[in-house]
Amino acid sequence: MADRPKIAAVVTEYRKYSHAQHICDRFLEGYGWNGRHHHPPMDLVSLYVDQRPEGDLSSERAARFPGMAIHPTVGDALTRGGRDLAVDGVLLVGEHGQYGTNDKGQHLYPRYELFKQVAAVYRTSGRSAPVFNDKHLSWRWEWAKEMYDVSREMGFAFMAGSSLPVTWRTPSIDMPLDARVTEAMCVGYGGVDSYDFHALETLQCMVERRRGGETGVRWLDTYRGERFWAAHHDSVWSRELFESCLARSHTLAQPRAGFSHVLPTLDEMKSLEDDPIAYQYEHNDGLKSTMILLNGVVRDFNFAALLAGRRHPLSTQMYLPMPPAHTTLANFFSPQVNNVEQMFLTGEATYPVERTLLTTGLVAAGVESLNRDQARVQTPHLNVRYLPNPESTFWRT
Amino acid sequence: MDCRGEKGTPAVAPRRLAVIATIYRYLSHAQHIADRFEVGYPYEGRWRRPNTRIVSLYVDQRPEGDQSRDRAWEFGFDVYDSIAGALRCGADRLAVDAVLIIGEHGEYPNNDKGQKLYPRYEFFKECVRVFEQDGVAVPVFNDKHLSYSFGKAREMVADSRRLGFPLLAGSSLPVSYRLPDLELPLDCGVQEALMVGVGGSDAMDYHALEAMQCMVERRQGGETGVRAVQMIEGDAVWRAGEEGRWSRDLLEAALSRSDTPCGLPEEDGRTRDLLGAGELPGLAKNPAAYFIEYRDGLRATLLMLNGAVRDYCFAARVDGLDAPASTQFLLSPTPNVTYSASLVHKIVEMIENGSAPYPPERTLIVCGILEACLTSGLLGGKRLETPDVDVAYQASAESQHARA
Fold first, then answer.
1. Is B11 exposed, middle or buried (0-12, 13-18, 19+ CB in 10 A)?
2. Whole-angstrom distance between the N-terminal and C-terminal Cα of chain A?
3. Chain A (255-284) residues lying within 8 Å, Cβ to Cβ, of chain B
4. Concatenated DSSP letters of B221-265
5. Which of A40, A223, A246, B3 would give a disulfide with A278, using CB separation of 3.0 to 4.6 Å?
């Protein structure tokens, strides 16, 4: 088994339901995949944990899996206590943990800082290895861009992002490659600088497959509170797409006692939702995409798009079997881990990191706009052009 | 599909529906199903408003929380005190275009097999009496199994054939989403099948059996009927596995589709191979195995594993595939239970097209399997020959579950 890749995990915290727990546990314990309990053909050999809050599981895991050693620094985790890089892949999971927020309300997760320490080992070792970065690259655009540039300059495979693009879909459909998309929408839930990222990745993994591929984003508007309802009323975004998203939800909030599944009217939605948020942005090829967060209306992520030559919207839900309310396992991490495994085995990312570079910039632009009284943010820096993997990479087998 | 509110739809008078229910209360099956004909439902990414109108309702019981009068007032239909009255809307001839029989929930006694004696057969026979007296019959939907009694269920299906009206019946599991979107190829060779289910009997074992049936009915030669069944409980279930009565490989495949392994995953979130780790017997303290021997030789097993998982997963060994085919039947959360929207759309298809999108024999054979299995359990796990469960039918070639 000498040729099994060795993997290091660099994480902020390792406790029940933290992203590090979901991701690292799948390497240690295996997970259900393609009809069996699959054990990744690689070994998680070292772990760096930045914080150990109450409920920390890292020691328990290291004790039960003695092949995985906990190291005091990122550098040690990558060199396994030696001088040079001693692993073949790095998991960077900087989600959850106490890191404070800035005056814009952004969580200051140290993904950039941890990434820089990884890159420093690569430089001194004269060798690099593929990196998976969970969620967006950094809360700061310039740092995200630097992370991307470093990966390109040093030539290592780099994958990032949300599990939304790769989880089950109900129904199990993909955007047809080269489709002519005229408008796209995601209706999801969660907050600014957190689940907005998931909703943006939901949108982006679909629209990047359109004719010509991704061309980047020119500007972004935000809508919150009364301004959101006014925009909805004025059809600033397609009402047909909005209704289609709600028709894909499994968790539509109910405005009337005694009814289990009615489509709320606009007035009813206003009574259910006290902080509606939308980011609308125009891509450089003219496509308009709208990301909507309605915590009081849905608790899932639903996508819809208008396509040329198609009478009704193409729509689906990116399905999250979410513990503890509905499941015991957050199995949407399984297809994410499986994609990462493929990168570690082949040295090639299965989907482009440019997707997450763009969504990282969109989150930052959304935060910026909301902090500037919902003013339009011009985004010439989001001139991110890329082509998708023509193969579908979501969970469907 | 003919839907009010869609542009370009010709103006056709709405189809008139009678609803015959045990109770109509929040989260009862009648509320989930009948409400959708009034408020619409999502299907294939659009909110559908079927061209139907409930014109009459009969409710057998009015418990606390009864909604029948509120609904009648809000949606403008009448509540009748007899089934014939509802079907004739108080006049002297059948006055509806379709009937929904929703006999789930309500207070009814159990028999010695633990079956709840819902009066679906009795409701159905009342409808048949009206059809016969008035010389006209209309499509009928029967929610869940036809009857606790296979004999009664068989009579119901025979009535529908004799009088020539479409009958749609059964569970919503067969029409729900599947994770992954698995459909066995029509006419494939199925060597062995296994289903994992949870919940009580005879409510949830029924759903699990029908989910398994909707998969295996697609096998080569179609459905041929059941030769024998056996139901065992407790540690005998694990011993039967060791003896090869059910396939460990198929159980691994089914469990690999579960999002709800219990025990250690609940404690600290870890993924877990419950089977490989030997933790199943400690979690599923009172398991049950329902063994089904079909006439064409197929063997299928339902394992009810309360305490180990909380979802419904299927696996089968299929000719030409190296590994078992497996999937989870998705039960989306309360209160929306979107799977019931899929079922309602099948009812609408029957009403619009005048034929059932899939045969009621599926539900009939499951009635026979379930009753015989529960009898076997009552007899201490005795294997029972089932010469009367000679239900042969062909599956619908087209997939009927939510996938678009």
1. exposed
2. 28
3. 257-263
4. T-B--EEEEEEEETTHHHHHHHTTSS-HHHHHHHHHT-S---SHH
5. A223
Query: Are B324 and A35 within 8 A, CB to CB?
Result: yes
3-state SS track over chain A:
CCCCCEEEEEECCCECCCHHHHHHHHHHHCEEECCEEECCCCEEEEEEECCCCCCECHHHHHHHCCCCEECCCHHHHHHCCCCCCCCCEEEEECCCCCCCECCCCCECCCHHHHHHHHHHHHHHHCCCCCEEEEECCCCCHHHHHHHHHHHHHHCCCEEEECCHHHCCEECCCCCCCCECEEEEEEEECCCCCCHHHHHHHHHHHHHCCECCCECCEEEEEEEECHHHHHHHHCCCCCHHHHHHHHHHCCCCCCCCCCCCCCCCCHHHHHHHCCCCEEEEEEECCCCEEEEEECCCCCCCEEEEEEECCCCCCEEEEECCCCCCCCCCCCCCHHHHHHHHHHHHHHCCCCCCCHHHHHHHHHHHHHHHHHHCCCCCEECHHHCCCECCCCCCCCCCC
Instruction: Read off the pTM.
Output: 0.97
Tally of CA atoms within 13 A in the half-sphere of A349 that contains its CB: 23
Please check whether residue B54 is in contact with residue B75, taking contact to mean a CB–CB distance below 8 angstroms. Answer: yes
- For residue A152, give both structure tokens: 């390109």
**DSSP single-letter state for residue B313:** E
Residue contact A30–B271, C-beta within 8 A: yes
- First-to-last alpha carbon distance for chain B, in angstroms, is 15
% helix / strand / coil in chain B, to the nearest 5? 30, 25, 45
Q: Which of B26, B256, B272 sits opposite A35 (nearest CB)?
A: B256
CB contact under 8 A, B402 and A170: yes
Chain B contact probe: residue of A37, A238, A306 with most B CBs at under 10 A = A37
> pLDDT per position in chain A (397 positions), as tens?
458 999 999 999 999 999 999 999 999 999 999 999 999 999 999 999 999 999 999 999 999 999 999 999 999 999 999 999 999 999 999 999 999 999 999 999 999 999 999 999 999 999 999 999 999 999 999 999 999 999 999 999 999 999 999 999 999 999 999 999 999 999 999 999 999 999 999 999 999 999 999 999 999 999 999 999 999 999 999 999 999 999 999 999 999 999 999 999 999 999 999 999 999 999 999 999 999 999 999 999 999 999 999 999 999 999 999 999 999 999 999 999 999 999 999 999 999 999 999 999 999 999 999 999 999 999 999 999 999 999 999 999 9
Angle between helices B120-134 and B150-163 (to 10 degrees): 20
- Cβ atoms of A27 and A64 within 8 Å: the answer is no
- Which chain B residues are within 8 Å of A239, Cβ to Cβ? none
| Token pair in block for residue B326 | 């497996």
Report whether A49 contacts A94 (CB < 8 A): no
Contacts of B395 (CB under 8 A, 6+ apart): B186, B214, B217, B218, B222, B223, B358, B359, B362
